[in-house]
Design brief:
alpha+beta, four-stranded antiparallel β-sheet, 7 helices
């Protein structure tokens, strides 16, 4: 019996979906930081450039900046960006309808501008492996960029200046 239920009924899938989105929050921070560094602008200026940009255009911008640089780890950075662009399925998993049963979670991706849809179905183990691969690509990007926690903190501090109380 394949009786579908809302994803909230299955805590293991909810937890792993949270891990997926948490990883992308860290990736966004890392990509924004890298864009600022490759453009040689301040964290405040980087925020002006990247705020409101979707992940796809940000990754393409970073790919282009890295490709035109003489960074010692250029190949490793581009490799990590390619994995994030081609294997992470960020748009499909973030903007889809989600449903699951006891054994699978399915993301129903609606194709923008077309009257089409596609399903991305994972078992719990497959979804966990997908998240591990995403985390690995994120770690590879961070290691290749060679930035410190202070670099990330500067980006966070620059954004916090705009908190309105």
């Amino acid at each position: 019996m394949d009786k579908r239920q809302v994803v909230q009924a299955h805590p293991n899938f909810i937890m792993n979906l949270g891990l997926f989105h948490g990883a992308w929050s860290v990736i966004d921070l890392s990509v924004d930081c890298a864009i600022g560094k490759f453009l040689n602008v301040s964290p405040e200026q980087m925020h002006l450039i990247t705020t409101g940009m979707m992940s796809g255009p940000k990754l393409r911008l970073l790919h282009g900046l890295v490709g035109r640089s003489d960074h010692a780890q250029k190949a490793q950075i581009i490799g990590a960006i390619n994995k994030l662009q081609n294997e992470a399925k960020r748009a499909a998993l973030t903007h889809s309808y989600v449903y699951s049963n006891e054994t699978t979670i399915t993301f129903l991706e609606r194709i923008p501008g077309e009257f089409r849809a596609r399903e991305h179905t994972f078992t719990l183990t497959e979804f966990q492996e997908h998240n591990k691969a995403l985390a690995k690509a994120m770690q590879d990007l961070w290691a290749a960029l060679g930035y410190s926690d202070d670099d990330l903190q500067a980006v966070i501090d620059a954004a916090r200046k705009y908190i309105k109380s």
